[in-house]
Every structure is written in C-alpha cells, then in structure tokens.
Amino acid sequence: MNSFATSPESMLFALALFAYLFSFVAHVVAAGLGRENLYRFARLASWGGATAGTIALGLRWQASGHPPLSNMYESLVTLATFTVWITLAFTRSTPFGIVEGGTAVIAVLMTGIASLFPQESSPLVPALQSYWLHVHVAVAFLGESCFALAFALSYLYCFRRLVTESGTTGENANAPTALERQVCAFLVWGVPLGFIGSMCLLMMRMNENPETGGKWHTMLAWVIGPAILASVALVVGMYLLRGSVGKTTERILPSEERLDEFIYRAIALGYPLYTVGAIIFGMVWANKAWGRYWGWDPKETWALITFLVYSIYLHVRLTKGWRGTWTAVLSLVGFLVTLFTLFGVNLLLSGLHSYAAR
Amino acid sequence: MRTIHKLLVSLKTAVLLLTVLSCLSIIGTLIPQEREASEIRSMFPRFGNTIIFLGFDDLYHSPPFIGALGLMSLCTLFCTWTRFKFTRRRLFKRLENVSISEIRSFHVSRELRGVKDPSRFVSGWTRRDFEDGVSVFLRVHGRAALIGGLLIHVGLLIILGGGVYGSQVGVETAIRGMEGDSMPIAPLEAVKAAVESDRLRRWGRRVEVESPKDPRLEGLHKRIDELDAQYRAGIASPVFEMKVNKLWVDTPKTPDEAVMVRNWNSSVSVVEHGRTVASAVIRVNEPFSWGAYTFFQSDWAKKYHSIRVEIVPTAAEAASATSAEARVVSMPIGRPVKFDWCPYWLVVLNFYPDFKIMDQEFVSVSDEMRNPVARIEGYDKDEKPVGDAWAFSRQLADMGSHFSKKPLPYRFVVIDGETDNETGLQVASNPSVPIVWLGCILMTMGLCLAFYVTYREEWAVLKPDGKMILAVGGNRPPIMLVPALEALVETAMHVSGPDGTSVVEKEGKS
Questions:
Q1: Which one of A149, B304, B324, B412 has the fewest CB atoms closer than 10 angstroms to its CB?
Q2: Is some CB atom of chain B closer than 8 A to the CB atom of A294?
C-alpha cells in the first residue's frame, strides 16, 4: 500500500467500513433477538460510519480541489456514503432494522470494491472541469442511492414472499402463486450467487492485469468474503429456522403491504432525482462540452434505459395499480440496470464517458 | 378509430413500447454504430447481414427504433390529452364529479357519530348538497401536485419534438487546424448538404453491397454529386473563416511530478471579408458562438512533423565508411533527406509515437512519445529503393532487424520528435436546443410537483341522521395519509364543544 493508505482520509474510510459492518451484524442480531437497545447501537454505528465517510469525502475534496466524483474509487465511496445517509433519513421515523442492515451490506461491498481501483486523487481531465460535475453526478448519485434502498427493500420483499406459507384457499388469499414463488426463489438465491460469480470473474480478470493483480486478496477479504458469509448466514439461518421461517420472517420484517409501500416511496424519491440529475443535467452539460445534448453514447443510452425501467415501474404501479411481487421484481431489475449504467458501461463499453473507468 | 385511440392510450401499449425501446437501446450499445457494412460483417460473421438488413448498425436511425419512438410519442400525445381532461376535472370540478360511494371506497376513512356542531368543523370547506339531504365537504391541499404528471408528459413531448426538429434543421460537423490555418466555415445549407451527402453515401454503399445493379443507385449518385457540389460552393464562398492563432496545452505538474493536461486551448479569430471581427479562446466546457454556429473544443492531437534519430553504422558499413560514429539527426516525416555521410536518400514513411502490435500490424495507441516506432526507407540517386529499417526506442532498438526485409547498413534509434498541435473543433448549429430546454424545465417542474408535493383531499360527508364520514385521499400511500385523518377526527371532536358527546366508531379501513 502507498502512503495514501495511512492518510486521515483513508483511516476514516476504513472506520466507516468497519462501522457499516458492525451495523449490519448488530441489525441482524437485534432483529433476530428483538432487542431494541441493540437496534439503537446498530443505528448509531450507521450514523458514525456515514459521518466518518462524509468527513473523509470532505477531506478528499479539500485535498484534490474537486468533488470526489471523478473516478471509480471516488464514485463508489460517495455512493456508499449517500446510500447510508438516504437509508438513515428514510427510516428516521420508521425503524426498519433489517433494511438498514441490508443497505449497510451494500455500503460495505461498494467500499470494498472501491478499494480495488486506484485511490490516488489526480487533477480532473479537461472534460470534467465544470461545475456541472457537482450537480450532474451528485444529484444522480442521490437518485441511485434511493434505488439502492429500493433494491434492498425489494430483495426483502421477494424473500418474504418466498417464505410466506401457502395456506389453504381462503386462509391466505394473498399467498404467492407458484410462478411468483419460483421468480422470488430465483432472485433471492440468484442475486447473491450472481454477484459472487461476477466478482470472481472480475478478480480473475484483475489478476491478469499487472497493475491490479496484487489486489485479489482485498477483493476476497472485503467483497467476495462478506458476500459468501452473508449468503451462508442466510442458508444456515433458514436451515436452523426450518419449519418456522415464515413466522420468524413475519416477526422481523414488516408486512408485505408496508414493504411494497416503502419500495414505492424509495423509488418515488429517487426517480425525479435520477431523471433530473443523470439525464437532464447530463444533457445540459453534454451540450456545453460536446456541442450536442444527446449522442447515443453508451453511458447516455444506459442512463435512458434505467429511466425507462423505473418509468415502467411507476406506470404499472400508479396507473395500473400493480402491487407486490412483480413491481418488486421490476425494482430489482431497475437497480441491476443502474449498476450496469454506473460501472458496467465504464468497464465493458467504450464511449465518451471512458475517463470514468479509471 | 376508437380502437386505435383505445390502443394508444392503453397502459399496456405504453409499457410494451417502453420495453421495446429499452431492448433496442441495449442492442445499440452492444453493436458498434455507424460502421461500414464490411466491418460489421467481419465483426459478426454469422449475424452481420441480419444486423445490416435490420439497420441495427445505425440503430438509433433505423426504422424499428424510429417507429417505436414515433409510436411512443403518439402514445404520449394521446395520454397527455386524456390526462389533461382528467386533471382539469380534478382541479376545477372535483366536487361536482364525486359520488358518496367513491368517498366510501377511500382507503383512509372513518365514520363518526354524534358530532354536535359539524358546520363549525367544515367551515371554509367547499360544499355540495345531494338531493337526499347528504352534504359533502371538500378541502384540498397541494393542488399544484395535480399538474405534475401533465407537465412531465408535456415536457417529454416537447423534448421529443425538439429532437425531431433538431434532426431536421440542426447540423454537426468538425474542423481541424494547426496554428496559422484558416478554416472556411460554409453556410448552413452547404453544411447540411454535406451531412446529407455523407448519409446517402453510406446508405448507397450498403445498397451497392446488397445489389450492385440496384436501379436506385443511379439517382442516388446523382443526388450525392449535387449535394457535394453545393458543399463545395459553400466552402468557396464561406460565411466567415476561423483562423487558428495559437494552440497550447495547460499542463500543471501533480505532486508526484506526473504531467496532467488541465486544458486544451485554441485561440481563434473570426475573419469576415478579410477583417478580424471577433476573437476567443475555446476550451473544453467553454464554447464560442458566432453566427449560426457554436464551436466546441472536442479533439486535440499532436502532429509529428519530424523525429530525432540516432543512426549508427553496422559493423560492415563501419569498416568501409569514413566514420563509424553514431550521429543524431533530425528527419522530417514523409520527406526525403540526404546526409553527406550517407550514400542514400532516407525517408521516414511511417511514424507512431506510441505503438502496439495487433494482428501482426503496428497500431497507434496515443500521441505521447512512449513507445515509438518509425519505418525508414533508403533510396539511391536514381530513386530506386535500396533497403528499409525499423527504428524503435533505445530499449527495443534490437527489434529493428526482425522487421526489415532488406536491411539498410545502419541501426536507427528514435530519440524524440518535434510536434505541432492540431485542434479539433466540433461545429454545431441546432436551433431546437431552446425547445429541448423548455421541455426539460417543464419535465423537472412536473417531476418535483408530482413526486415531492403532497396532494391531499379531505372529505367530510354529513348525513341527515347526524353521522359523519371523514376520508382522506391523495397522491401518497394510505399509510402516509393516516395522520391527516387522525388530525381531522381530533379536530371534529374538539370543535363539537366541551359538552360534545362524540362517539368515534373505529370502523375505518385505515
């Protein structure tokens, strides 16, 4: 590690990482045991982590002279911090331990992945030297943080649907159909497995690159390890609670209706932020920098696809009155598309936004 | 007609079109766009022809995409009209259109009995009396939220309309120049002709590959020639000239001594009829507008005009030559040069400052002198080739002998190069931009109103038997409306007076 790793900023990021990790474990234990005071500790850890992350971002901004939004490392740590803040604000009046723990895991994974990318703060490339960098990226990240929260909620919704007792006709009229159950099972097991698989592939690819080859242990310790641990914990928990998974889930998770409403509220908060920040501000900046507001660059196109997916969600929910599994699935798909727009496009497709892949 | 209208305002159609547009957009990011047909075929040997047939190599201008986008616009237009009628009713005729059963169906409602003085409670609310003695009262908060959805759709339509208008009247092109160059800027019509000619030429090449004797080709070539002539005429009598005065790069050093480009600067002057009428420095994010055009700093290149090379005679040559010493000389790129000590004319044919080898060919990676290679040929006094040599950096100098077919009796090492800067300016004229911004502003306002402003309808139904139904509706999930209902119930009980004997029946659905 270079000298950067021992800077106050790095230590604060590391502190934030441990705080998120502690928060996750404490939230799960608090929910499992129904301990209110432990929940408060967990929430305090999230607050602490988010504060440490914010101070670190401020120090980085001060040192580099530009907002920490210019490369993959900065994007990921900023997004992780925003996600925790959004969750804290969202659950301010409605305690929701498991989802707070869920977003803490997302923050841990984002910070872990961030550490794989070069951490040095370098001067901005000419294209990024504009005040639009602040508003375009920061507002879009706020929207994406809301989508991350909606993702965590949707995952929990699918989990809840998966373990809901079928019941006899009339006893549980809201019981999931066989198709719903299969889709939920696919997502509940597929999302972590897909994540672990893609991270393993990324690790193999990074190993081939002499610049990043030495970072496989970081990947293993802070990304793949926690993801495997969380998945194993899920399997073990379900095994130990076999026969009463449904009842335990009912105890620690809010009702399906409330989860569904929370998902909608998170998306309704994030959708305008994302549309204005990522698309409209992006158009204004593109017009100023490149002479055209839209050029079908891969990043622009994927931002549009993200907008379209969430537009579908809002249309079917608000106009058609869809509720439940299928809107939760749309929300999950929406966040996966968001992730691809954010990182997949940078790493896999070349275009005018290629500088973001550093 | 009614079926078509029904289809266009249907949510299923909208969702289907949104899905189709998303899928097509994904395809557009996976297939390289606006490449030659041959290139697409070599990239996708199995599906190349299908891709070209469907127009997916220029997907965003292809019939499937334009068709889906057109249908989407039509759907949005019809939905906006329907939404407009609905919003107008909601805004101005809400009370007239309500029914008791609608209020009863609200998710957040409660029935009260024995409210002593209900008229005090609903004082200031709008009122409607039904024939059976039932009175309905309404109080609305956040009425502006109602127009949010309408504004989003109107904004979207304006953006789409602006885009279509821009594609018809706007032009985008690029100019390149070095210090001292004057670049003629043709009138808009001429530039449009060039853009159209380019489009037709690409389409023509595709048609030619599919069917070389296609009867449309003759007319097409004629049209292309006309458009080219129009462009040439425009260049011959430009509206103004853009003169490049000075080009420079700001390169501050980072703390670790790395050189980083802060900005590329193009100092330019506008020359009209031989007279300088304006000057500006164009940088990235700092465009310059003149006449109908706006100029953007979009590209920058280093043009190597000569390289410094160390030339060392090989052992055999050294034995016969007068001197075996190494010489460092400057060699212009592309022009032959003769040195006194060398019996041949030498010419640098190719030079890449930073190369890599792909498919057994040298490919340029960047303009920086990181890993140079130059191909040098030698000619005798009769201009007959006598040999060639490959010059690399000192670290790779020994590689030269592997690539030469007929080696010259010298070993060449590239030391450095002399460059001129070349600026690339994007030239754009798009009168539709203000229209698009108007759409964006409306859409932003609509999003803020629809999602961040709480619209709440508070209903009170007063029945002749003294029962009162209180209900709350709006654009928030029921759970968020419950506190408003609780507050209403509280107030209703409070205003009924201290001697009131209100009985609250908790039979609401909240």
A1: B324
A2: yes
